[in-house]
Amino acid sequence: MTWLKEILGTEKAIIAMCHLLPLPGDPYFNNEKGMDYVVEMARKDLHALQEGGVDAIMFSNEFSMPYLTDVKTETVAAMARIIGELMSEIKVPFGVNVLWDAKKSLDLAAATGAKFVREIFTGVYASDFGTWNTNVGETIRHQHRIGAQNVKLLYNVVPESAAYLAEREIESIAASTVFNNRPDALCVSGLTAGAKTDVQLLMRVKEAVPNTILLVNTGVNFTNFKEQLSIADGAVVGTTFKYDGKFENHVDVDRVKKFMDKVKVFRDNL
């Protein structure tokens, strides 16, 4: 039994994104509506996702654009407040992602009881956010120092809006990441949130590390989910669940239900 089955209750799991609005300190934070509005919009999306039947939810500061790689304390504090206020209403397993700061994601997980985090744990990149370095050895030691050793780590090996500084084949990246770090899952992405993940890329990663859980990280939708989930072990879904399938919109419960109904039929026929 994989940890997906043990913790999320199913194989081919769908982890739904609960994208938080801009937070205090972010350029687009709405000072007039304040944090109460952010909490209420998060509550609305949470309930829509749960009512729609998703397997798990991941909270992220998706609209803290442009992203930092050394996230400020006020961002983590705001995310902790939101999750804390919603805690009694969360009915499915949940994870967190503080974009793009692996240590802060673990801090938030430890504070809230999140079951998993998704982050860029390894590699050095040229990105839209500047040169992006990581220190996985220190990050994992931090995980153990704060008592978060049971938090599952989802390693994003194809970061959005970034590329390895050194030219490396994806098979090499996947194999060395698994050998050196023992990730709980690898996530493979498209260029940005909502962008389709290349099927050939998925296949190459799965062939390189067949015994590691592989998640499609972006771009899973009504037309391609069967193809994607026939290769991957699960998917992280955000944009598809929103009104009109647009990244900037809130969650549409009818779209969630329709999508999850199709996924459940697919899973039943495996």
From TrEMBL:
It holds the Pfam family BtpA. Coiled coil: none annotated. PANTHER family: SGC REGION PROTEIN SGCQ-RELATED, ZGC:162297. Belongs to the BtpA family. InterPro entries: BtpA, RibuloseP-bd_barrel. This is BtpA/SgcQ family protein.
